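Example 3.
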Amino acid sequence: MKTSFFTSTLLWMGVGLIVMAITPRFIHSNYWLLVLAFVAINAILAVGLNLLMGYAGQVSLGHAAFYGIGAYTTAILTTQHHVSPWLALPAGILLTCVIAYVVGVPCLRLHGHYLAMATLGFGWIVYIVLVQWDQVTLGTSGVENIPKLAIGWPEVLKEHYRMLTGFRWNAGPLVVFDNDVKRFYLTWVVAIVLLGVSANIVRSRVGRALRALHSSENAAATLGVDVSRYKTMVFVLSAGYAALAGSLYAHVVNFISPSVFGFIVSVGLVVMVVIGGMGSVWGAVVGAATITLLVEWLRDLGEVVPVFKEFDVIAHGLILILVMLFLPAGLTMGARELVLRWFRRRRPAPTPQPQPREVTRV
Amino acid sequence: MSTLLEAGNVCKVFGGLVAVNDVSFTVQAGQITALIGPNGAGKTTMLNMITGIFPPSSGWIRLDDKPIHRLPPHKISARGIARTFQNVELFTNMTVLENVMVGRHLRSRGNLFTAATRLGGANAEERKTANDAMTYLELVGLVDVACEEAGDLPFGRQRLLEIARALATEPSLLLLDEAAAGLSTREKKDLVELIFRIRASGVNIFLVDHDMDLVMDISDHVIVLDHGEKISEGTPGEVQHDEQVIAAYLGEEPVSEK
């Protein structure tokens, strides 16, 4: 118990950042760097959904809706109202959180399949609004020319400088996230920070309360955990992650359309969480990578063998069934389990010894 | 002697079934009180109402002269009532120590922001919570398995863990629902000793059981329910010789005991 939780999370984040920093040295294909940027965005979505599903045990089949609301808010504000992306992005997250709160309070009174149905319905409604409300969302044709994110001196500062000195400050932006290497770094820095934050949350008073209500709502409540408050909180938090991922997607791809935020995307997110392991923060990366790469691969395959076009829908279902049957703890924990079992089979029966283990695990 | 918990004319109706019918009783501070009765007498229903899992259909429950029967469970917990469950409800997805740390929920600080950023002494608070939780594991003798998964413990120790977790909330009243069910004779003896130790530390105990032997040995005051109604009340000696109680336990219908 001597080791600080802080250092261990920071350690993992550090390792993640170093791996991230050197990756573009080995991957020279812009295409693959962009795919990896999508892996990061999906990892943000998956880790957020995992807080809700894996830790608090509340199913959401409509998470793509929050992803979409975040993306569309920044897209519309930046293209139609010329708001700075750095203001539009938090605005998108804030709006999504407010909507999640309004939707979450009644929905989270439901349990299990009923909650799944309610969130699924919410997802459909948002999708239909994105398609039909075309004066604002531009319908199925989508929003184009979403500005790239750029880091520079704020306009306000430049204006003050001009007023004070009388000179114009002509400095352009310092960094524009305009190529695939920069996009890769942008998305992964955000993803790694959020993974670290999530790892911290689950190993805290809040995280324990969430896991407790997952296991037994009655027991958690009689120990003083305000169950409905915590459920709402994690639902809003999870929606906030999705909104941030959506904003990133909008600024990285510079184009969004409703199909990116449809029902099948929500299902894909659930599959990522299940593959990565319910209740495993770093597993979310594994889940996100598996599904993202698989979908890309199937798309390539579909080009060659037309039978495999639109095959990802079937693949999602198939993977979900196989994982549930054979690796119910997910790929990361499941693989660990398989390796351990293999070792046990090779060795003579181990003498039962109390193993001192880490007090809290990710 | 002061009144700690008071129930007045409590009724609970589920659909057409009257589970608890017009039951009144008091729990005095400093005593071990027991609520007994055959299976299906309404004991656990009573307990669920006291802890706010569901409200009574009518009647009232007061703790320290303040009504609690309309409060949600987490607020009742904050008022100082803790409980264990008949069918052990541990957090099986967590370690033994973490289970007790959840019991420290209201006695520790920390919100989403401090958790995420680890600012504001969050790590120190976390360590303090773990250390506090350890003292409760010490009390029930589970320190050696602190880091094991709660679901991996043998049944007897799971019951002890539930007691430790409930005590971690620092209650003034501890409700034990069938704490002796499924325990071996030896484990029961240890449990009795533990109950006395808990009472000595100033926590009032309210036992709910159908195990007459255990209850009669350790209770100061016994309340007997049958078919949702209170049929007798008094010291163990008085209750044991009450004809209605004898009839309820041995009488007209076969009662599957133990």
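Residues 5-346 of chain A form a domain with the ABC transporter involved in vitamin B12 uptake, BtuC fold (CATH 1.10.3470). Chain A has one domain: 5-346.
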